[in-house]
Amino acid sequence: MAVEPLSQKEIEDRLSELPGWSPDGDRIARSYRLASHFAATAMVVHIAQVQEELDHHSDLTLGYNTVSLTVHTHTVGGVTEKDFALARRIEALAPVHGAQ
Ligand SMILES: C[C@H](O)[C@H](O)[C@H]1CNC2=NC(N)=NC(=O)C2=N1
């Protein structure tokens, strides 16, 4: 997969198709609210499985009933298609966990 940094317009276009995700400096970011701490923790484990599968990892914070994460591509120090591929996979698994 291409790992060239995306332009601001390319990032904005892709974010427009990912409700809840937003630009955050040289990253993209999303926060989820869940029904309990255990639900949030289970979602973190699921995200970790997907990240290992993709070999692409977010920086993630587990709160009482929240999961907050940012994603960027370390090797280029910016946002690439790999970040959006991970974001889409996280969006796809979020409903399983009742994440808002
Ligand atoms: C060696 C390993 O494939 C690389 O370090 C991977 C691991 N996970 C990664 N995750 C992210 N977000 N960016 C990377 O450049 C990256 N590189």
From TrEMBL:
Its EC number is 4.2.1.96. Keywords: Lyase. The keyword Lyase applies. Residues 7-16 have a biased composition (Basic and acidic residues). Residues 1-20 are annotated as: Disordered. It catalyses: (4aS,6R)-4a-hydroxy-L-erythro-5,6,7,8-tetrahydrobiopterin = (6R)-L-erythro-6,7-dihydrobiopterin + H2O. This is Putative pterin-4-alpha-carbinolamine dehydratase. It comes from Streptomyces nigra.
